[in-house]
Amino acid sequence: MKITFVVRKGAKLHDVESKATIYVRLRDGRSFDSITPTELSVNPNL
Questions:
Q1: Is this prediction's pTM over 0.85?
Q2: SS3 letters for 1-45?
Q3: 6 Cβ partners below 8 Å, 6+ apart?
Q4: Rounded-to-integer distance, Cα 11 and Cα 13, Å
């Protein structure tokens, strides 16, 4: 099983106000692939 954390939103270069949700992607070969949002958010420039 492979676990990946993904930020799906881009931001402009000097934008410090925007927030993006962190998603968790769980994969187990071709039989299982799921993406779920978390309650965490970060600035995408960081």
A1: no
A2: CEEEEEECCCCCCCCCCCCEEEEEEEEECCCEEEEEEEEEEECCC
A3: 22, 23, 24, 25, 35
A4: 6
Q: Which two tokens stand for residue 37?
A: 């949002």
* Spatial separation of the C-alpha atoms in residues 30 and 46, rounded to whole Å: 32
How many residues belong to the chain?
46
Chain segment 1-46, per-residue pLDDT in tens: 899 998 877 666 677 778 888 999 999 988 999 999 999 988 887 7
